[in-house]
Every structure is written in structure tokens, then in C-alpha cells.
Design a protein that fits this description.
By secondary structure, this protein is mainly beta. Helices cover 5% and strands 45% of the residues. The protein has 2 domains: 22-310, Glycosyl hydrolase domain, family 43 (Tachylectin-2, Chain A, 5 Propeller), CATH 2.115.10; 340-467, Galactose-binding domain-like (Jelly Rolls, Sandwich).
Length: 468
């Protein structure tokens, strides 16, 4: 069985068990651990890892980017960087974070080096979706230890940037304005019960440590630094029993001293040993991004981004946040009368995404019975036509357009012929068969005609409706 078919089976074929009403995890076409959100010019960008299915370890070779304007429909921008982007990297493309400064985007990553140590590097781009390139040609942080993972970066109001990172230990440096060098020495943050809920001692596992010392929590990894109302927040992966939780501390300064505030998300059925999150405000609301192992075939080594909305308490503390399958409410509507990428979706089944240099990212491997759901589409006063850019090496595929449910009213249908190849896209059109206006969820349903069950039907690049 080739890798593409294996990926399809593990990520797509079994998704029906989650149900059409689900929104979490927000991406179904790939595993997307360690989400790092960034807001730029009215869009939320999510930078994630990419767990490879079928392994019993954190097998990751690249990073991915997604964006959303409404918090429910996410556009796949593919994989702008990978291990191959860094000549000094060998393995373990683990957690990362991207930040904008002066119109450039700096993506801080951690990898295993050719010297078999973990190190932190930085890639730079003029666009939040790339292309990115290695800014230094060497690591930014390399001290020859395992601790150099999970970078988080923050720019304070005075322009000073800080880079934090660490597994079991927490470190920081002050970055220079070029964002690719730092000043002074690497500083280790002292850990204590007062600062992080517990003290992790070298040579002892978290389970043994907490049992012996009876600590409520302990800093493990995955720091996330941000500021709100002159207060600095450090969220991190703590430890509860045998799984990680999300905890946080606060400080009047970006460098401490830190005061432990408690657990944000704990004792949740995430189906993942690790958790790694990011908190951010967008369109007047606050969101927690985190990961779970709840996609079919997911787990501790197949993790997926999820999101919850929350409100801070009156004193600025963060409430306990419960994971949900429903996710968050739409923060806007989608305009159907402009080109919309097919890889913009709220939910999908029996398809994946691929990319090439000519087309970019597109929906691939559409199979009968699968669909793409797009939420909160505003047709205003009505539509008269539908068009879709599709590609097929063999005929027999049908693209149906339904409203509000996968079996809801069908308003358009396109029979897809051979287009000259699986990556030779052609734009096909359909009239609208039923009157439609206002806001609806739209389902692009994949059907087949006289085909073998499970066969690939077509690829799907973009779509649009025409105003009445």
C-alpha cells in the first residue's frame, strides 16, 4: 500500500464516526499538533506541526500553515518549510511559533541537528504563508542539550523581543531587533512551587516526583508567552498524573518573577499524552488553541488542533476551559461570490489536500460519500450559478452542492469528465436548481457514477457562485 493511500485511510475513511455537527479538531486532512496562532491584517494564522501517521513516536518532518477569517473555515496553505529547509537539521521537526515584525515573518522552529542535539532555528519570509528560508544557515540556539525545544516568541510594547523555550527547564534570551540574534547570556528561570506549582528535579520522572513530593503541578514544556493589561502570562504544559495539562503563571515583568495561577485545561479526554497550546485575541474575543488525539487513528503520536472560546475572569485570571467537539461560533460570514479555495473548509471527510508548484494547495483524493462543509456562507439576495475548478484522470465523478446538511437541498451538480490528468484543472459550471438566499452552511458532496467503491474521483482547486 502506498503512503498516499495509507494517509487517506488513516485520516479520512473513518471520520464519519465523529459526526457532521463537530468542529473540533478544526483540521481533518492532516494531523496538526502544537498549534501557534498569530493575528495579522484581519486574519488568524495557525502554524502547526505535522505528525506522520502510522508511527509510535513524534515522527515529524515539516510544518504547516492555516488561516481563518471567521474561526470556523480554515484555509490550508500547505507546508512552507520542512527539515530540508535547514541544512543543519536531521530529524524531529517539532513545535514552532511565527511572529511578524516590520513586515517580515519570523518562524522559530526546533529540530534535531546533524550532531544529534536539539536546537532552535529561525526562518524568515515576506509573507505569513511563505516562502520561508533559513535566516542564519545555522541554529540560533544550540547548547548541546535536549532542552532546546518548543520556542515561543513575544515582542513587548517597548519593542524588546523575548524568546523562551525549554523541556523540563525554562530558558529565555532577549532578541535583537533583527530577530535573528540575541543579546546577553541565556537565562534559566528558577522553578519553584510558587512559580510553577512544583519543582522538577533532574533524574526523576514527573510521576515519581509528584507522588513523592505531592506537588500540584510542574513545568514540563511548551511555553507560550503573551501580555494582557500590563500583566504577562506564561502558559505551558504542566503535568497531572500520567498526562500533560495546560497551566499558567503570571508576572509583572516578561522575565519574572513568575507566580503560579493554576491549571487551565486538565483531566480532559484528549486521547493524547501531550498538550501544547496558544492563547490569542481575535475580533474582540479570546481563544485557546490546543491539540488532541481525537481524529480516527489519532492519539499521542497523531495530534490535531482544536480551539475553544473563553472569557477572562474580572481579575484577569483564566477560567478552567473544557474541551468540546462543537468548537466555537462563527466570527463572521463567508462571501461566496469571490474565488474560494476548495481547501477552505470547516469539516471534511474522504478527501485530503496536496500541493504542487503550478496549482498550490488543492483538495485531493475525493472519494464517493465524502464531502467538504463550509460554514456561514452568505448568499445575500440569491445566486444564479456555480463554478468549480476540478481535475480528473478518469471520468465518473460528480460534485453536488447541498445546503445545511450533507443530505440537504441540492442546488447544483457537476459531472466531471476527464480533464487530461489529475493535476490538469478545468473550470466547469452549473445552474442553480433551487432558490437560495441568506446565510447557509454549504456541503460539497462527492459522488461517483458506475465506479468501484473507494476509487479516487477527482481533485478540487477552487469554487465560486454567481450573484443573481
Amino acid at each position: 500500500m502506498n503512503q498516499r493511500n495509507l494517509k487517506y485511510i488513516t485520516l479520512s475513511f473513518l471520520l464519519a464516526g465523529i459526526g457532521i455537527s463537530a468542529q473540533n479538531p478544526v483540521i481533518q486532512t492532516h494531523f496538526t499538533p502544537d498549534p501557534a496562532p498569530m493575528v495579522y491584517k484581519g486574519k488568524m494564522y495557525i502554524y502547526t506541526g505535522d505528525d506522520q501517521p502510522g508511527f509510535d513516536f513524534y515522527t515529524m518532518t515539516k510544518w504547516r500553515v492555516y488561516s481563518t477569517e471567521d474561526m470556523v473555515n480554515y484555509t490550508d496553505h500547505g507546508s512552507p518549510i520542512s527539515l530540508e529547509s535547514f541544512s543543519w537539521a536531521r530529524d524531529r521537526a517539532w513545535a514552532a511559533q511565527c511572529i511578524e515584525r516590520n513586515g517580515k515573518f519570523y518562524w522559530y522552529i526546533c529540530v534535531q541537528t546533524v550532531d544529534n542535539n536539539m536546537a532552535i532555528g529561525v526562518a524568515v519570509s515576506d509573507s505569513p504563508t511563505g516562502p520561508f528560508k533559513d535566516a542564519l544557515g545555522k541554529p540560533l540556539i544550540s547548547t548541546g542539550t535536549w532542552d532546546n525545544i518548543d520556542p515561543t516568541v513575544f515582542i513587548d510594547d517597548d519593542g524588546q523581543a523575548y524568546l523562551y523555550w525549554g523541556n523540563s527547564k525554562l530558558f529565555y534570551v532577549k532578541l535583537n531587533k533583527d530577530m535573528t540574534s540575541y543579546q546577553g547570556q541565556i537565562t534559566e528561570i528558577p522553578q519553584s512551587v510558587e512559580a510553577f506549582g512544583g519543582l522538577r528535579r533532574p533524574g526523576k520522572s514527573d510521576e515519581v516526583l509528584q507522588k513523592q513530593e505531592k506537588f500540584d503541578d510542574v513545568y514540563v514544556e511548551g511555553p507560550w508567552l503573551y501580555k494582557r493589561n500590563n500583566q504577562y502570562y506564561m502558559m505551558y504544559a504542566g503535568m497531572t498524573g500520567r498526562t500533560e495539562c495546560l497551566s499558567y503563571s503570571t508576572s509583572p515583568s516578561p522575565t519574572g518573577p513568575w507566580k503560579y495561577q493554576g491549571k487551565i485545561m486538565t483531566d480532559q479526554p484528549t486521547n493524547s499524552f501531550t498538550n501544547h497550546g496558544g492563547i490569542i485575541d481575535f475580533k474582540g474575543k479570546s481563544y485557546l488553541f490546543y491539540h488532541t488525539g481525537l481524529l480516527p487513528a489519532g492519539g499521542s503520536y497523531g495530534r490535531s488542533t482544536a480551539v475553544e472560546e473563553f472569557r477572562y475572569n474580572a481579575d484577569g485570571t483564566i477560567p478552567k476551559i473544557t474541551m468540546t467537539k462543537e468548537g466555537v461560533a462563527p466570527a463572521g460570514t463567508l462571501n461566496p461570490y469571490q474565488r474560494t479555495e476548495a481547501e477552505t473548509m470547516a469539516w471534511s471527510e474522504k478527501c485530503s489536500t496536496s500541493e504542487n508548484r503550478k496549482t498550490g494547495v488543492y483538495v485531493s483524493d475525493a472519494r464517493a460519500g465524502g464531502y467538504i462543509r463550509v460554514r456561514s456562507v452568505d448568499f445575500e439576495k440569491g445566486t444564479s450559478g456555480f463554478s468549480a475548478s476540478v481535475a480528473a484522470g478518469i471520468d465518473g465523478g460528480i460534485l453536488e452542492v447541498h445546503l445545511d446538511d450533507v443530505k440537504g437541498p441540492k442546488i447544483a451538480e457537476i459531472e466531471i469528465p476527464r480533464t487530461g490528468g489529475w493535476e490538469e484543472f478545468k473550470t466547469l459550471t452549473s445552474k442553480i436548481s433551487e432558490s437560495v438566499s441568506g446565510v447557509h452552511d454549504v456541503y460539497f458532496v462527492f459522488q461517483g457514477k458506475n465506479i468501484t467503491a473507494g476509487r479516487k474521483l477527482f481533485n478540487f482547486d477552487y469554487w465560486s457562485f454567481q450573484k443573481k
